[in-house]
Amino acid sequence: MLARHRVQVGRAGDERVGRDIAAALAPAVLARRSSLYFDGGDFLADSDTVFVMPRILQRNIQPTVASREEFLAILSRELKRRVILLGEAPDHHAGMFMASVGGKTMLVGDPGLAREFMSTELPLNATARKVWESLGYEICPVDCTSAYRHFGCLHCLVNVLHRS
Q: Is residue 163 part of a domain?
């Protein structure tokens, strides 16, 4: 049995989400199924580039593709974007440590640099708020504490389909 056919009980129905969203937003949104193995959090994209977590390559060599080059060619063709396969990255979804902020700019968090703020969440949140405000964003705090403890973040809970 191939890995993509195994479904965790708590994730049953996940494979229908893209199709359901596309149906609700048709004809502006189209859903296509890929032959590659991945989680949605394995990618983070802007209008030109998609950043790809390294673990997706490991999942796909042999079961779906023969080489790194074939994998990158398929992704580039399917996503119609420049593909940057990260050489090293935390073993989390991309949205846990990086975010696209427009203007060909990505914010990347470094836990090592945040150590000085870790005694309390308040200085870390205040620092993050200043960074986002400096980029012209309006800040509306959302408590993601319970999601974060289970390796999730706001990016896992919501997604921006279009930003003007």
A: no
